[in-house]
Structure formats: structure tokens, C-alpha cells
Amino acid sequence: METRKHHPLYEAIGAIVGSKYVTDEDFALIPYSRDVSAFAPVKPGIVVRPGSTEEVSEIVKLANRTGFPVTLKGGGQSAGGITKGEPARNIVLDLGRLDKVFDIDVENQKVTYGAGIRPSMLDDALRDYGYFVHSVIGPYFTASMGGILSGVNGGGVNVSGGYNWRHILGLKVVLPTGEIITTGAGPDTNVNRTGIDYREATAPDLTNLFLSSGGAFGIITEVTQLMYPIPKISKSGSFLFSTMEDVWNVQLELSKTTPPLYSGIIMHDMPTMAKFGVRGVEGYGLFFSVQGNNQEDVDLRLKGIEKICLDGKGQPGTPEMVFYGAHGCTGTAEIVHEACSNSCPFMTWELAYPRKGSLEFCKKLLYVFDKHEEENAKYGASRVFYSFPIANAMLIGVTLHWNDAVPGAGDYVRKVWKEGVDFILKEGTSVCYAQGSNSNLVSSVWSPAFSKFIGGIKKTLDPNNILCPGLWNL
Questions:
Q1: 309 pLDDT higher than 90
Q2: Sequence spans of domains, the chain
Q3: For residue 139, which of 106, 134, 340, 367 is within the disulfide window of CB 3.0 to 4.6 Å?
Q4: pTM score of the predicted model
């Protein structure tokens, strides 16, 4: 019987992490060959699950010595496609074992955790202390925190808090050469520090270099993040609007309130509400939550929101809308937590667009999908649509689903998705996923000067082009 040949680095990697945490068996490689999207799979050569920053460093050093490329996997919930690298040679680093909470510092309101931890796990660890962190609403059980920060870095249930980067104090990163650094006010900006204390460092702030980079410049292994006390009071509400114009105007009006009257807010159209169990309504639903520690303050803010909604031609939501607001998109988020982890496969147009002109842009984007009515029916294709104000922009999301049992459905949705991305790029924005095929489309509209600058950073940090080669067309 012929002995099966292992990947050339099988023994060497096994010596670093232990044989139980490395595999090159086909049955194990296949799940690592794709994400939740319809993009073509990229089968790796070997998969390794390191258990520490130091093990990640040693693997990256080995890759540099031997010339094998390294690609990354967090929770596999990316919708941007797998980074191509060099198929059949790639070393996939699955960072899921880096899931420990290292320090919960209540006095300084910060937490340090491994990048492989899931949002649900981090919430569980902090809940006993009465704290939470700002992160995305979903995928709650599947995505890793490191993947969220390097792959999309979006908002959260409490969108009034803005994007995630505002809440990150610093990172521990393995560079493409295998060196380990910390960003923020940590041990590398003052050798007398033992941890990362705050974001403001007496040195250039490198944290943002690694956020939303897709892992092109370094591997995030640990995160130090602000944490906040869980509010004592949380109330939610909903309003129904007849037209997209009315609900959009109300969103914009609410976004002007300073400080924001709402903690969380999101809009859905009728088909999307139906997917989440809100049926028997026509129009557009606006869902919101208000959180605080003072009942009078919470009630005043709710009244302020209700006045703006009523003045904007809204009607109080139905009982089903009230339930979804309390347990779904803006309340406990339980419904959305479950939906995100059970809604695969999908592709998405999720992006930020300037508030001015956002309604007209959104209508045109929806038409890219809706105009294919006959083909959508043939392939079981449908969409989920949402929007909310965040920072100084509107976040617009259109998630595409299809019937994977229908031959050609994946190819069809991929074609429609590309049509939408072409429109998005021409309108001056881009889908926010910093992974695989999507990153290459985003970088296709970079200016020559910016491309040269980013390429120079990549070449300096990664002289052998070992880490995620091809990401951002680098």
C-alpha cells in the first residue's frame, strides 16, 4: 500500500504546535477552501491551529525560510472570498484556539483577549462583571473578533457608538517576518509598560494599519479594547412608514440629534421584516433602542424619537414589530444573532455612503438586484435590506441569498453581485469586506499614488510576500 505524502512542512509545523493541531488530510482541507460566499473555493495545502502568539510567530518565520505562503482564517464568516495566495501550497492559520480572555481590568475599563474569541464568548466572559464591548450585531456565534477587526471593522447594535476602531486601544500583531509588536500605548512605545493602557501613544498610531487590512500587513493575535458598563435600562420601539422617502428622511433627522437620542437604530423593508417574522405589514420598519441608567432620561429620549417619527408620517409598529425590536435588531439581538449564523451561504453589498444623496444611491443599488425578477425566481434568489446612520454616513446593506440546490444559482448570484459592486465603485464607495476577491475589486479603484504607497508598506513589512499574497492585488 502506497504511503501518503504529507505537505513538505507537516513535520516542522507539527513540531511547533503539536501533531494534533496540524493536518493536510483532504477531508479537513475542504472546509477551509471557502467562506460563506459564492466565490470559487481555494484549497490550501495544510491547516494549522496555533495556540499562542509565539506559535504564530514561529510558523511565520518557518514560512519565510521555506517560501510557503500564509493565509488566515478566523470564524470563516467572511463574504469576500478566500484569499487566493498559492492554492495547494498555502499554510492556513486557523486562529480559533486564540480564544482566551487574558485580563478584565474593571478599574481602567478595558479587556484584553485573544483574536480567535467569538463575540458570544467575550460577552459571556464580561457579563458577570457587568460590562460589554462594542462589536458587530452578527455573526455572533461564528465570526472571530480578530476577523471582525481585520476583515470588516463595522459597527454594532449600539450604532450611536460608531465604528469599532474607535473602541480599540491596541493590538498584539505578528508581522510578516515573524516579529511581534504591540500598538497603542503598550510595551513597544514604552518598554516600562507591561500592557496596553490606552490608544494615545507617544509614537505614530499604528493600530489602524492593521484594522480592516484583511491581514495583509500582520496577524492580529491579541486585542485590548474598551469595555462599558451594561446599561441598567433598555427600551426599544418601532414605527412603520408607507414610503422609503419618509423612513429615510426620519433616519437622517434622527442622526442630527446631539447626543443621539437612540442607542441602536436600523431600517428594514417589508420582505426583510417578513424574513425575521414580522408579517402582515406593508412599507418600511424603523426599529430603535434607547439605553441608559436613568429612567427619566430614557423616557425623554424615547419621546423625542417618537415625535420625530410621528412628524415624519410614521405610525407606531405592530406587536410583531415591537417583539422584533425588543429581541432582534436593536434590543437583545437574539433573533439576529441566530439568523446570521444560520443564513449561509450569502453575498453582500455592505457599505458606507455620505448622507447626502444616500436615498437615491440606495434605490439604484436595490434596482441592480430587483430588475432581474425572472432570474431571481429561477434561482431562488432573494435579498435582505437594511440601513442606519453611523458616524457621518449612512450604512447600507443588501445581503443576497439563493437556493444552492439549483444548478447555476451560485454563478448567477456572483454575476449579479459583481454588477452591484461595479455600480458601487463608480459611485465612489466600496463594499467594506477586506478579504479575497472583494479586496481586489476595492483596490482596483485606488489611485496610482495610493497603490504605490500601500505597495511600499507591504514590501517593507513583507519582503518575501509571504502573508496573504494577492490580497489587495499586492
A1: yes
A2: 10-96, 98-229, 233-339, 343-443
A3: 340
A4: 0.94
